[in-house]
Write a structure and sequence with these properties.
single chain, mainly alpha, 5 helices
């Protein structure tokens, strides 16, 4: 078992963010000491922590990450989530390109 500080160092996720993940139900501590309130994590939870961080970097919201974690064993559902996010990012990219072109036109 790892104390929250040790888990934070290994996962490279701040203690504050780990508490936030717990609050949102994404990554609950493996155990919480009833007397001290200390949070303990299991080494196996490092994989979930890495997955959450990767999904955040892909632009998924906390709510969607929660849904993704609940259907990890369903490849078709995962593909739907990833395809939808890809489409959203592509649309945002296209909008940014149009904005950039308008700015460039205005500058010239």
């Amino acid at each position: 078992m790892l104390k929250i500080g040790d888990f934070s160092k290994l996962s490279r996720i701040s203690i504050r963010m780990l508490r936030y993940f717990d609050e949102k139900g994404l990554l609950k501590p493996y155990e919480i000491d009833n007397l001290t309130g200390y949070r303990y994590y299991h080494e196996s939870q490092l994989t979930t922590a890495s997955t959450i961080v990767a999904l955040q970097k892909m632009g998924f919201s906390i709510a969607v990450i929660s849904e993704i974690l609940n259907c990890e064993s369903d490849p078709e559902k995962l593909e739907e989530f990833f395809t939808e996010q890809k489409n959203i990012i592509n649309e945002n990219y296209q909008n940014s390109l149009r904005q950039l072109q308008l700015l460039e036109t205005s500058l010239s």
